[in-house]
């Protein structure tokens, strides 16, 4: 079956609408009234108020395609076939309404019926929680072969306290040719860290309350929360080796290619990673700004800044010397116009924010790269493996390099960065900055970078997915 991204999204939502669900809009990436979460990172993150009982939804059955940002996957981008910083999570939700008996047959129908996705059942593998006999029996009843049903004790969703329960995950076998591991590698199974068995859907049965006493009490109200990665499913329909060779990303990659110094996508592994980083990050940047976030040195703003500067360096590696990111913004808008018309409408504004930030960084980029490369040479020549904290701080403070960018750059050369030393230098600088706030301290074009620095705030995610966000911010 041939379906493009807009058709896959529509089909999923229509399927669940036919089963009595209300289609909910894709909410802002910026969480509303939820200081515990930096970004919306899943469909259910927008439904917290229904799941914890604070608000009763008009309809207990809801479906959505929710834009989501996960910073814990930044470093996976371009390296795995399947991870993005921003992706869309298709989901269906039951707030105390239907449960396993309904959701498992529906999932199987959507995936395998010729009226819907029409996937070959031979290609699908299911993992379930070993003690969850109900899920096992239901999957068998709908026709899943025994050797495609895999017990895995990892299949339990638990955030420490509150609603929790077993889950079940659906994998699509992309074939050994797509794998990055030998067939007999112990990790090469559905649920393992490999590129053959692609996790496409996660269905959570929240049926227990994890109490402060660490017991699991059955919940009076049982809920369903599911998440399917749109980009991954589209890669299957478009028979693309990774999520990137699909209608969601290729126009951005093609445009970047035209801007590059004769680089061609698909010819060199290292170049391809840069193309993918740019195509991925510009989507997150564009959508985040469209939803009202702005680059800065704290919290969400720092994430945008980090993604944007990482993209500029990726462009540099492709031989792009001019500002280019802003020109990709309307392309993102056009690709996503169908479901997110506001992005194209805001494109001029978004592009102007991107341009200002890119120009600011570009002004010091070459100086920073020169410093970084010469320090890398020195460290290597001395037979050492660590870039000191002062250098990392100078790169940050004078040249605008997020420390994570320095770390990645160093890692490519087999080196590390003394992050503790970086933080110490940062603290020292903040103290000095406070004393000299209104004077010209001669720090050059990037002084503004730290003057708006704030005290770190602790972010504890609704799920544990966002913990890494707090890292240095
Ligand atoms: P993975 O194990 O591949 O990292 P996950 O188990 O962390 O995925 P879930 O939290 O179960 O992901 O999210 C539900 C679905 O959303 C996944 O089954 C997958 O299809 C999709 N998904 C999760 N993270 C990403 C990402 N970074 N980029 C694209 N799709 C994602
Ligand atoms: Mg993950
Ligand atoms: Mg997983
Ligand atoms: Mg999962």
List the helices and strands and how they pair.
Blueprint: H1 5-18, E1 22-23, H2 48-51, E2 61-69, E3 86-95, H3 100-112, E4 124-128, H4 133-142, E5 149-151, E6 156-157, E7 162-173, E8 197-210, E9 216-229, H5 230-237, H6 250-259, H7 269-290, H8 299-317, H9 325-336, H10 341-345, H11 347-381, E10 386-387, H12 389-397, H13 403-412, E11 416-417, H14 419-435, H15 448-451
Parallel strand pairs: 1-2, 4-5, 10-11
Antiparallel strand pairs: 2-3, 3-9, 4-7, 6-7, 7-8, 8-9
Helix pairs in contact: 3-4, 6-7, 6-9, 7-8, 7-9, 7-11, 8-11, 9-11, 12-14
One magnesium ion binds at residues 169, 199, 202.
What descriptors fit this protein?
single chain, 473 residues, alpha/beta, two-stranded parallel ribbon, 15 helices, 11 strands, globular, disordered C terminus, binds adenosine-5'-triphosphate, binds magnesium ion
Give a short overview:
The chain is of the alpha/beta class. The protein has 15 helices and eleven strands.
Number of helices: 15
Order of helices and strands: HEHEEHEHEEEEEHHHHHHHEHHEHH
Q: State the low-pLDDT regions, or none.
A: 437-473
The coarse silhouette is globular
Q: What name does the CATH topology of the largest domain carry?
A: BirA Bifunctional Protein, domain 2
Biggest sheet statistics: 9 strands, mixed
SS class: alpha/beta
Going by CATH, what is the homologous superfamily of the largest domain?
Bira Bifunctional Protein, Domain 2
- Residue share in β-strands: 15-25%
CATH architecture of the largest domain: 2-Layer Sandwich
- Which percent range fits the helix content? 40-55%
Tell me the total number of β-strands: 11
Taking all Cα atoms into account, the compactness measure Rg is 23 Å
Mean pLDDT across every amino acid position:
90
Q: List each distinct ligand once.
A: adenosine-5'-triphosphate, magnesium ion
Number of domains: 2
What's the CATH first level of the largest domain? Alpha Beta
